[in-house]
Amino acid sequence: PIFITENGVAFYEKLVGGQLEDDNRIKFLQDYLFSVHRAIIEGSDIRGYFVWTFMDNFEWAEGFEKTFGLVHVDRKTLKRTPKKS
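Given the sequence above, the corresponding structure tokens read:
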């Protein structure tokens, strides 16, 4: 059995007018999940998939420069804003 426990992508993103348009992340996830689905159809025993990560956080390689999460975290106020993805 295969569990994909951390899959995501980092981008430079900013809030504009209270919105974060992360179409690049949506495209990445759609393409990846399409491939996972194809692998299942072809016989792979994939039992779980988890996006990395729920909220933007500190990443050792990128610090706070790029964002990874499905929810934007304002570093000054800690306000959380869901992204389109």
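The radius of gyration is 15 Å. Try to locate this feature in the token string yourself.
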